[in-house]
Design a protein that fits this description.
CATH topology of chain B: ABC transporter involved in vitamin B12 uptake, BtuC
CATH superfamily of the largest domain in chain A: P-loop containing nucleotide triphosphate hydrolases
CATH superfamily of chain B: ABC transporter involved in vitamin B12 uptake, BtuC
Radius of gyration of chain B: 18 Å
Order of helices and strands of chain A: EEEHEEHHHEHEHEEHHHH
CATH topology of the largest domain in chain A: Rossmann fold
Domain ABC transporter (chain A): 4-219
Structural class of chain A: alpha/beta
CATH class of the largest domain in chain A: Alpha Beta
Shape of chain B: globular
Number of domains of chain A: 2
Protein name (chain A): Zinc import ATP-binding protein ZnuC
Pfam family, one (chain A): ABC_tran
CATH architecture of chain B: Orthogonal Bundle
Oligomer: heterodimer
Strand content of chain A: 15-25%
Number of helices of chain B: 12
Radius of gyration of chain A: 18 Å
GO molecular function (chain A): ATP binding; ATP hydrolysis activity
Keywords (chain A): ATP-binding, Cell membrane, Hydrolase, Ion transport, Membrane, Nucleotide-binding, Translocase, Transport, Zinc, Zinc transport
CATH architecture of the largest domain in chain A: 3-Layer(aba) Sandwich
Largest sheet of chain A: 6 strands, mixed
Distance between the termini of chain B: 48 Å
Distance between the termini of chain A: 35 Å
Largest interface: A-B, 23 and 25 residues
Shape of chain A: globular
Strand order of the largest sheet of chain A: 5-6-7-3-8-9
Number of domains of chain B: 1
CATH class of chain B: Mainly Alpha
Strand content of chain B: under 5%
Number of strands of chain B: 0
Number of helices of chain A: 10
Chain lengths: 249, 264
């Protein structure tokens, strides 16, 4: 049974339709990435899945007993709010200290429990948010542009962490990303969104789909191939692709 | 003991500080300072209406404060910048309130008592209203504490945890209206926001957790109330403003303390 199933979903803000007739499903254990230009409704889709937006039409069906862990976009912690990492993680209620240590270790930041949230670097903060999502032992992780504001090395290492988490816990991942060259290689399935589902399939299929190329340009296909062969170190990507990544941010 | 007006005044001040501390922290964290001001200023209109219809001032001011807070919540995000909207509403409510008070004939009203408080005239009845209201506010915020904090950190994080941030916002709005109503007698409508914000801001450099900050804000507020009253007695100054002055001096002191800590 699917962990989550989106059926014929339409979302409208005022007079603007941001999503029309979107359907998708996430199966246990798979990593699905949603790509799409700015304003293509990626975040609205995720917000509809967590129940933060009411759909105009269609529905979101969650498998029975399925637990979802949500990692928001980089969130701003006001300097005036003092809060330690461990207190932040305890906000969920009924969380033991051992759970917190375990989740922080899983997220790759075992030593941060006593740190102030507002003092963390971008990469540390995202890992703490990941730890928060992991505490409830989710079957599905939802990530909304979790690497926004991280440099390339930081985001590559964050996605590696996600892959590790998937291997260790077997949870499925549904994520949004701008960083095509990184996520395309790490995903089992890619959904290209632009108000509606343009195309979907394995990274290779999507990268060669005409709809995808129309949105992102042909250079990304090359970057994908490049990345597949060279996982562990950085390259200067073709200018074309770089432009697109930047333009998307 | 309660026969002594100074004791009653001190108890009233402590009661307001008690309610204002946890609420004030949220006002600071959520950047609602001006929102608090608008709600408090609207209360003067409530005072006028209460006098006109011979109602309890507590009920009248609370109702108008609540109405104001709800209007602001509904109007926010509909085309006006929040600070413009609050600026318009806060000051018009104050102005309409002052005009409305002037229409009430037959009753001689000491307007200053409502603008700046009249803590030395607190009766036993007032005391029970203040402490009752303060207990409700603290209980309400304590009950919703984790949900309120989560909603304050991030709305989507709240939704994903099954918390409705709009409901939590309503809890704060109600708490604010009650606090305004009980604080009128103590510091008056013009200085209520100060009792919310200054102790919380002064507590920030001393705190590592949200709970710590709420407790520290409570202690600073209660200390300011007692010392301010004492100072008002000794120097023959107005009591409400004196309390706020002491809180402000505490804020200065903890800010300097933080400056030193950052240098090291």
């Amino acid at each position: 049974m699917s962990l989550v199933q989106v059926e014929d979903l339409s979302v409208r803000y005022g007079a603007r339709t941001v999503l029309s007739r979107v359907s998708l499903r996430v199966e246990p254990g798979e990593i699905v990435t949603i790509v799409g230009p700015n304003g293509s409704g990626k975040t609205s889709l995720l917000r509809a899945i967590i129940g933060a937006v009411k759909p105009l039409k269609g529905r979101v069906v969650q498998g029975s007993g399925v637990k979802i862990g949500y990692v928001p976009q980089k969130l701003h912690i006001d300097e005036t709010l003092p809060i330690t990492v461990s207190r932040f993680l305890k906000l969920l209620g009924g969380v033991a200290v051992a759970d917190i240590d375990h989740a922080l270790a899983q997220a790759g930041v075992p030593d941060l429990a006593a740190a102030q949230l507002s003092q963390l670097s971008g990469g540390q903060f995202q890992r703490v948010l990941l730890a928060r999502a992991l505490i409830g032992k989710p079957d599905l992780l939802l990530l909304d542009e979790a690497t926004q504001g991280l440099d390339q090395r930081g985001s590559a290492s964050f996605y590696q962490q996600i892959e590790t988490v998937r291997q260790n816990t077997g949870c499925a991942v549904l994520m949004i990303s701008h960083e095509l060259h990184v996520v395309m290689s790490a995903s089992d399935r890619v959904i290209c969104l632009n108000g509606h589902v343009c195309c979907e399939g394995t990274p290779a299929v999507v990268a060669s789909a005409p709809e995808y190329r129309a949105l992102f340009g042909p250079g990304t296909g090359g970057a994908l191939a490049l990345y597949r062969h060279e996982h562990d170190h950085h390259h200067d990507h073709g200018d074309h692709n770089h432009d697109h990544t930047e333009a998307a941010e | 003991m309660l026969d002594d007006f100074m004791v009653r005044a001190a108890l009233a001040g402590i009661g307001v500080a008690f309610a204002a501390a946890p609420l004030g922290c949220f006002v600071v964290w959520r950047r609602m300072a001006y929102f608090g001001d608008a709600t408090a200023h609207a209360a003067i209109l409530g005072v006028a209406l209460s006098l006109a219809f011979s109602m309890s001032i507590f009920v009248g001011s609370m109702a108008v404060a609540l109405l104001m807070a709800l209007v602001v919540s509904v109007l926010s995000g509909r085309g006006y910048a929040m600070d413009t909207l609050l600026g318009v509403l806060a000051h018009s409510a104050l102005a309409f309130g002052l005009v409305a008070v002037s229409f009430i004939s037959g009753v001689r009203i000491d307007l200053m008592a409502y603008l700046f408080g009249d803590i030395l005239a607190v009766s036993r009845g007032d005391l029970s209203v203040i402490w009752g209201g303060a207990a409700v506010v603290v209980a309400l915020i304590g009950w919703r504490w984790s949900a309120l904090l989560t909603a304050t950190l991030n709305e989507d994080l709240a939704y994903a945890s099954g918390i409705n941030p709009k409901r939590e916002q309503l809890v704060l709005t109600i708490a604010l209206a009650i606090t305004v109503a009980v604080a009128i007698k103590v510091v008056g409508v013009l200085l209520i926001a100060a009792m919310l914000i200054i102790p919380a801001a002064a507590a920030r450099p001393l705190s590592r957790t949200p709970e710590g900050m709420a407790v520290a804000a409570g202690l600073i507020g209660m200390l300011s109330a007692t010392i301010g009253l004492r100072a008002a007695y000794v120097f023959d100054t107005p009591a409400g403003p004196s309390i706020v002055c002491v809180a402000a001096i505490t804020f200065l002191a903890t800010s300097i303390l933080r400056g030193f800590r950052h240098q090291r």
